[in-house]
Amino acid sequence: MTHSLATGRRTPLPIHSRNPRRAYDVDGYEITPMTFQQAMDKGVRAVRVICDCGCVDETPIYVGAWPSTSFVPDAGMTLRCGACSKPDPQTVPAWPKKDGN
Ligand SMILES: [Zn+2]
Q: Ligand 1 centre from 100 Cα, in Å?
């Protein structure tokens, strides 16, 4: 008995059916995004909110703001741009700045 092909097997997605909130590698495989827990474990304390209007803002990650298991790119669904109030901005981890210059 062979095990199911459905488990552990990923299919490359054509561009038109890709999720704009997900990254894809060069072969078209979806890259699993970072969760808030993983981001915080790496020292991330804020999400960078990037809007089409060019506004870039940072929102602190506070306890209860988002479930620790939710993906950082999905946080934008609950946010609006601070400048133009457009909903659904892009969100990425705001990596802590390195010391020194
Ligand atoms: Zn905006």
A: 32
